[in-house]
Amino acid sequence: MYNILLRLSRNLFFYKNIKLPDTFETRIYLMFVHFSILMIITKNKDLKFNQNIYDQLFHNIENNLREIGLGDVTVNKKMKELNKILYDILLKLNLENDKKFKINLNLIKKYFSSLNEEENKKLGQFADYFTKFYNFCFELPMDNMLEDAIKFKY
């Protein structure tokens, strides 16, 4: 799962078209948005999301933080912060209460501050990408949704 989310977050669309800064935080936030959409789809299909997938995601992030040289105290603090961010994104990303998907643009601006400075066209493209990602993944069978999400093209 981590590798799939990482590949989705490295889509050149985000860096060339939308002009997001290519930073650790940007990639993590993009991973969280993709992951949240997959969790929202699971909920909308009245299924339970596998806790092991969530645990593995955060285990991989923790390992990456350690590999870049952060110490135990810093890693623990950063992991708590990232956990709060994921839940913020997960709980506020979809403005609809039913199986439709409408992205919360204010939430996007909060985590992708460069979109505050850009014209609305880029924000609209960003929202369109994730709406189409949601629709693409929603149509996938649940058994393969996580693995097949990587096939999404925008």
Your description of this structure?
The protein has helices at residues 2-9, 12-17, 24-44, 51-67, 72-92, 105-111, 114-117, 120-138, 145-148. The chain has 154 residues and is an all-alpha fold. The chain has one domain (2-7, 21-151). It starts with a helix and ends in a 6-residue tail after the last helix. 22% of the residues are buried. The model has no long low-confidence stretch (mean pLDDT 91).
Radius of gyration based on Cα positions: 15 Å
What oligomeric assembly is this protein in? single chain
Amino-to-carboxy terminus distance: 20 Å
Beta-strand content:
under 5%
Largest sheet, strands/sense/barrel: none
The overall number of domains is 1
The secondary-structure element order is: HHHHHHHHH
The coarse silhouette is globular
Q: Summarize the amount of helix as a percent range.
A: 55-70%
From the helix content, strand content and strand pairing, which structural class follows?
A: mainly alpha
Q: Give the total of beta strands.
A: 0
Q: Give unreliable regions as ranges.
A: none
Overall pLDDT metric = 91
Q: Helix tally?
A: 9
